[in-house]
Amino acid sequence: MGFTVEKSGLLTTIQDSGRIGYRSIGMPVSGPMDDKAFRIANLLVGNNEGQEAIEVTLQGPVLHFTSDTTIAISGADLNPTINHERVLNNKPLHIHKGDVLRFGMASKGMRAYIAFKDGLRVAKSLGSISTNTLARIGGFEGRALKAGDKIALNTEGHTEKKVHWSLSPTAFSYLQKNEVRIIRSNQWDWFTGEAKRNFLSERFTIKPESDRMGYRLSGPALTLKQPKELLTEGTTMGSIQVPSSGQPIVLMADSQPTGGYPKIASVITADLPIIAQLKPNEELSFKEVTLTEAHKALRETEAEMKLVKAAITMKNG
Description:
By secondary structure, this protein is of the alpha+beta class. The protein is built from four helices and 20 strands. The longest helix has 26 residues, at about 290-315. The model has no long low-confidence stretch (mean pLDDT about 95).
């Protein structure tokens, strides 16, 4: 079989690498909030990097396994246990039929990813397994997992080979960061000089109503030189919109494809995992970089991922 959900956790969804090619009809990409941790979890169990996995938010679920399998947990440290014994993130974990995976409170980060050897037996919708709860599409019945759900695995069983290693925590040093790099948007010069200075020098607090659509921030109001709105313009994960309140919104994985609010900046792709792991009421700050620097940061991230993949391949023999 696979596993039964005994408790749902705060927000537990199935995500793959995202629903690509449907933004033109208004469908968000979805996928993991923290793409880096998601990819590493899959690599640890020998999957391709975009294989579906479970995204756990702040308070994890309780999963009762009904077959043997291999899993890996990466991202936030939510103090996972198997049969009440503490287990480590960032290594393959052999599961036996009857085992129960539980999570404690988050001690570091916001979101963890559970990858399963060869993935989960769930159907694709519009080319993807990613859950979008607002559109009620993807994942398991288009919703977050809840108690009583039974999820099947693509492959059952595992080898009895013991695993005595885990990835270095340096791969997840971003869990300790709260500064994110940005590049200017097309509407940067719509904002007053004071707004731009405050944006780059002050700290902003993540509001509790933040979600997978967007992180709502509170801080100094970012005012326009004169009242102005776009008819509409394309957006992406990381776009920072500023509504009439002056309080910015960082668009995230389930965000809409277009919007009319002016955008002061965009978070660079390499730093999106930092935001994804920040909790409500935590603070963050912004640092401006050039487009060249943003590209360099992304190349460095991908080079690091290649090293991680090589290390895992070598360890798994």
